[in-house]
Amino acid sequence: MLTTSLLTILSAFALVRAQNTTNNPQLEVQSIDAQFDNSYLVPDLLASFDPLAFLTVSYGGQPISAGTLLPVNDTQAVPTITITPANSSVSLGDLFTLAMVDPGAIGKLSTPGPTRHWLVNGVTIGANGVLSVPQTAITAYGAPYPDEADAPHRYAILLWQQPASFAPQGDLANPGQPITQFDLNSYVSSSGLGPVVAGWYFTCTRGDAVAPTITSAVDIRTLPAYAAGTASGSSHSASGTHTSTGSPNGALSSISFKPVTALAGVAAAIFSVAFF
């Protein structure tokens, strides 16, 4: 069973990681890049992920670290999202499409595609990097509500460049569409969206899940920007893209742990990050 102690330690690790990437945009970008790989959002959701910026997502006015396990009740209100480029040379564009999608728990993918909880076109960047999200949405924001028997679901917030040639097809050209599963990759390609410029995720569960799957933590000390101390000023390179040739669906043993082992391993990771 997924214990309260385990959830507390996982959340504490996310907090420690956030504290150690503060004021280093390049490190933040590299960290979320690695987290998408470790959480199997690449390739479960995206074939690759090469962010140019990082998102700061706040629920109830409180910034939340990427990967945090949130109670359903804490996700009811529409979040506030701020974007920060990796460095001053990054050009993000002027218009964007924003989505929040749920590909399911690790090892149990949603079919035929992720569940669409939020989809908005015509997003712009306002003062201080805060995203200005139009009230007219293709799918209005809907809070997570995973199956109570499932392990924690992953909820990814993604931001794509929206070029002038953007032309959504079918029902997703019209506002007021319900929360439902859809083919995300088909939507992106058929509508002509540009690349994902930033992403973020959290996890959510409604009960004690049987045989929880825990992703490995990102050790920020292994990231190039940590070794450099501060962002170098060069643009984020595609060589940092995290791709994966295999999904955990056929090899869960490589990322699944017994609760006691998980507690010990995550606790050790917390202390190693907190005291270096």
UniProtKB/TrEMBL annotation:
<protein>
    <recommendedName>
        <fullName>PEBP-like protein</fullName>
    </recommendedName>
</protein>
<keyword id="KW-0732">Signal</keyword>
<dbReference type="InterPro" id="IPR035810">
    <property type="entry name" value="PEBP_euk"/>
</dbReference>
<dbReference type="InterPro" id="IPR008914">
    <property type="entry name" value="PEBP"/>
</dbReference>
<dbReference type="InterPro" id="IPR036610">
    <property type="entry name" value="PEBP-like_sf"/>
</dbReference>
<dbReference type="Pfam" id="PF01161">
    <property type="entry name" value="PBP"/>
</dbReference>
<feature type="signal peptide">
    <location>
        <begin position="1"/>
        <end position="18"/>
    </location>
</feature>
